[in-house]
Task: structure prediction
Amino acid sequence: MNRIYYIHILSVCPTGWRCPTDLTVRIGRLAVETGMFPLYEVENGKYKLSLDLPHLRPVSDYMKLQGRFRHLSEEVISEIQQRVKTEYDEKLANLKQQVASITPPPESTFQELLDLANKEFDKVKSTFPGVEERFKQIEDEIISKMEKTIKDQF
Result:
């Protein structure tokens, strides 16, 4: 299947951002932790938070380490903080709305699949004695993967 992929990556630039090189990793993490650069994915129009933060750190924690922001007043930083919080909350609300709209498949669908697998298993078991143990392992792996997939989606 042909798809278009787009990756937007934050890359800390010590020269342009006027910050020490030994703080680049810390600044990159603060960009995410403050909501200045939220970490999320969009696939087929569905948002997925890559990192769900219970609360955002103040944007000033991110900005104070960089000389490029030193000219900003507390008032401007406060406005930026409000905008970041609003946009982050909107993304989070969008995600929660999408999750709430997902309808899990009926339990009967999984039971039908399991019944079909058991029927096929009985055929193979009678033809090849001794494979029952290996089939049980495979069945357990399939059920585990199905449960993980469902858990990851909800």
